[in-house]
Amino acid sequence: MASPDSGPGGPAPVLDKDGVRLIVDDAVATVTLTNPAKRNAQSPALWRALAEAGRALPGSVRVVVLRGEGKSFSAGLDRQAFTPEGFDGEPSFIDLARGDDDVLDATIAEYQEAFTWWRRSDLVSIAAVQGHAIGAGFQLALACDLRIAADDAQFAMRETSLGLVPDLTGTHPLVSLVGYARALEICATGRFVGADEADRVGLANLVVPGDQLDATARDLAAALLAAPRDAVIETKALLQGATGRTYDEQRTAERAAQARRLRDLAGLGD
Known about the structure:
Mean pLDDT: 94
Number of strands: 10
Strand content: 15-25%
Low-confidence stretches: none
Number of helices: 10
Strand order of the largest sheet: 1-2-3-4-5-7-10
């Protein structure tokens, strides 16, 4: 497996625009946020590029690693969004607020597309987080199936402090991971959650020294590739649906999934 920062002779980027680079190396794709000078602050253009990266993945990809260049994973939304002029070629958030409800809803839904594809049933996604993961950065890490945190990682949901709410798909996974009461406390206070606490409460699957972050992500990706793809897909679907099913419904789902796997292994699948 190639390094996340493939140099000369490595795989060429499939996409490299608006602060997002996608490199595909056989079954592993690496999506890198590439604006370290602004601590990988996010914008509508970056969100469109992230959504495009998801659409550009070839069918061979089984694992996607998400990482950020520089000292921070992502410091959240670029504050330029809150200025009257906004971003070049984009409606400002102030203009959106003054518009029709349907337009505002559709625009936020478009922004959310950058955060939704990471949990596709045919993929396992890993966020490798160092430094700050604030607001939209925290929600982008939460969009992934798994999170590896460097020991300097700091997570914070700062939207409430700005008079806003987290609206980039982060609330559902946050509650699922840490429970309602802790999720409310984290969001309402906007406080920082360090790597040790993230490990303790289930936000992070692993915490490692910063200089081991990329290597650990590669090792985890390799471990995920060791099992047959269809078995991983079926298992992920079972786990994703578990909280919405009763115990008996989950037992039924397990039996149906196992029957499919046994038939496939016996060469009797559709």
